[in-house]
Predict the structure.
Amino acid sequence: MTFQIAIDGPAGAGKSTMAKILSKKLKAIYLDTGAMYRACGLKAINSGIDSKDEKALNKMVSDINITISFENDQQQIFLDGKNVNGLIRTPEISVSASDVSANKAVRLKMVEMQREIAKVNNVVMDGRDIGTYVLPDANIKFFLVADINERAKRRYHEMKEKNMNPDMESIIKDMNYRDTNDSSRDFAPLKQAKDAILIDTTNLNINQVIKVMLEYINETQTI
Ligand code: DC
C-alpha cells in the first residue's frame, strides 16, 4: 500500500519547503506539480502561444511531451526531451503557468500523470488542487496559507539567493494576480479541501510548521 500526502495553498505559503522535508523524513518522493504547469507555460511562450488562447493550448497539449525523473531525491522535469529545471522559475513563467493551468485540457493531462506517479510511489505532492481533485483520498491533506507580505518576503529572499535581482512590488503584484487567477478558474481551482488541515505559516518557522504537520501525520494510523 502506498501513502499520499497532499499539500495545497498559494505561492509562498511554504508548500515546497515543507514537502521536501516531509518527503525525506517519510521516505516518499516529492512531486512538485507546479513544475509541470510551469513546463506547459514555457512551451506556450516558446511556441508563441497566447497563454489564454484555449484552442491553441488544446492543440499544444495534445502533443506535448513532459516527463519527470527523480535524481538524488531531486525532481527533474523534461519538456519535449530537454531538461527545463533551470528555465521555469522566472516571474514570466510563473504568470504563464498560472494562465495555462486554467485550461482544462492542460490540467487533465497533468493530473493523469500526477495520479500515475502516486499510484506506484509514496508521495508528498504539492500544488493547488491536490486535496480537492488530484488525490481526493489522500491519507493526509494540508492547506498552507500566509499573509501576502510574508509570502512576498520569502520569494524575495529566494530570488536574491539565486542572484535574480528581485523587486518587491512586482512580486506582490504577480502573487496577487496568481492568487486570483488560480482560485477563480472554473476547473479545479485553488481551494481548501473540506478535510484538509489548515496551517497559517505567517508567524511560524520551518521547524514549527514541520512539527505541526508531523503531529497530524503521526496521529493518523495509516502511514
Ligand atoms: O506552485 P507553483 O508556483 O510552481 O505553480 C505555478 C502555477 O501553476 C500556479 O500559479 C498555478 C499552477 N498550478 C496549478 O494550477 N495546479 C497545481 N497543482 C500546481 C500549480
Observations:
- The mean pLDDT is 97.
- The first helix runs from residue 15 to 25.
